[in-house]
Amino acid sequence: MKTSALVRFRPRTLFVLSLTSAVSACGFMWPFLINAKSVSVASIFFWAASAFAIALVIVEISNDSLDAKSIALLGVLTAAVAALRPLGAGAVGIEPMWFLLILSARVFGSSFGFILGLTSILTSALLTGGIGPWLGYQLFAAGWIGLFAGWLPKKIRRKPEIFMLVLYAIAASLIFGLLMDLQFWPWALGLETQLSYIPNGDIATNLNRFIVFHFATSMAWDIPRAILTSTLIILSAPAILGALRRTKFRAAFVTPIEFVDSKNAAIERAKELKAL
């Protein structure tokens, strides 16, 4: 019996995911693409992309891409990640949820990581009352972090794997801060400062102002987030990765039953257990 990825998007679902990601990316970049009079239109498109993403999760759960065990595991990890998020209360970027999202996506794959990112942020927002214009941005930022964590090379193990995950955690923390600044910057400073967003301004001027604004504020948020996430990965990754891999192997998620020679099956099982 061979284990497989926990969730695999079908070609049609993958197309919808790519389309919604492209639309949401435009939502992040709206200050450089459209004028201020079109902000409401940009918001509509971004919320539409978020709705498509949530619908995508529902479709994946309702069809045979996820079996009962996979859904149960998704629920448990969603609750765990959502419960970790408020512990830091967002103070100076201290959000301990990211290390578990990255480790889970590492074991169960990019598709599972994307869904876990969406469901975790949505659950956390519902629990803490954090529903607002920023939620759509957070959904996709977390989903992308899980998606790309699942794409990291699978053959790397032990200390090189931990080192790779630490580097990814640092990059993901910094990129998350960059994405959140993109949705916050146009409203943060008003229109009177040297770093304010200029409605109908040219792309080069607004881009320069945003870069200065981001690096002037990121030191207090993104770096603590990167330090905390990478530290938690260093301390917990060996134990958590081992536990998650044993769970995946023993539960045999979405794995069809195959009749094989018992001797060869025993040899293959011993090899897989040794690799965990």
Write the layout of secondary structure elements.
Elements: H1 11-28, H2 30-33, H3 39-62, H4 68-84, H5 98-108, H6 110-128, H7 135-149, H8 158-188, H9 203-218, H10 222-251, H11 262-275
Helix pairs in contact: 1-3, 3-7, 4-6, 5-6, 5-7, 5-10, 6-7, 7-8, 8-9, 8-10
Summarize the model shown:
Mean pLDDT is 80; it is low at 256-260. By secondary structure, the protein is mostly helical. It has eleven helices and no strands.
Keywords:
276 residues; mainly alpha; Arp2/3 complex 21 kDa subunit ARPC3; single chain; 11 helices
Total number of helical segments?
A: 11
Structural class: mainly alpha
The number of distinct structural domains comes to: 1
CATH class: Mainly Alpha
* Residues in helix, %: over 70%
Low-confidence stretches: 256-260
Q: Approximately what portion of the residues adopt beta-strand conformation? A: under 5%
Assign the CATH architecture: Orthogonal Bundle
Oligomer: single chain
CATH level-3 fold name: Arp2/3 complex 21 kDa subunit ARPC3
Radius of gyration: 20 Å
Q: What is the makeup of the main sheet?
A: none
